[in-house]
Amino acid sequence: MDRITHAVAAGWSQEPFSVILPAAGVFPDSGAPRVICLAAGEGLNALGTLHTAVCRRLEELIFRHEEGVFRAHLTLGRVRHSTPGAGRLIWKVLKGLPLIKLTWRVDRIALYESQLSASGPWYRLLETGFLGPDTRRT
Is 50 within a domain? Predict the structure, then answer.
């Protein structure tokens, strides 16, 4: 784990950037939905570039990233059980919701440890690595 935390903390040459989450959606695109999310709009290319950099750095250690297309999103919820027509109903509800475009500045990468327990998951921050040429932060 020390090698991974050091890799994250080493700093990242990519400049900080903003991300806007403008619209709700579901995964997968067709069939019964399993995830309800906000999809990334502005900043999507920068997120993809950062994703590639993280995967490359961690592949040098032990990590093998999933094959497939990177889809930046913020998970709002998961659908545990679905019935016929649920996807259409979820889409109808999502399209009728007034959404505020969520915006934030991406200026760091955080590595968390997650543990599942009977009372629910818990998360502990292990390390932070900052974006940009000046990676000396407090």
Answer: yes
Q: What is the mean pLDDT of the chain?
A: 83
State the virtual CA torsion across 54, 50, 75, 6 in degrees, nearest 10: 30
Asked whether the beta carbons of 24 and 76 are under 8 A apart, the reply is yes
CATH number at residue 75: 3.90.1140.10
Interatomic CA distance for residues 57 and 120, integer angstroms: 31
Cβ atoms within 10 Å of 117's Cβ, excluding its own: 7
What's 131's DSSP letter?
B
* pTM for the full predicted model: 0.74
Which is more confident, 84 or 10? 10
CA atoms within 13 A on the CB side of 33: 22
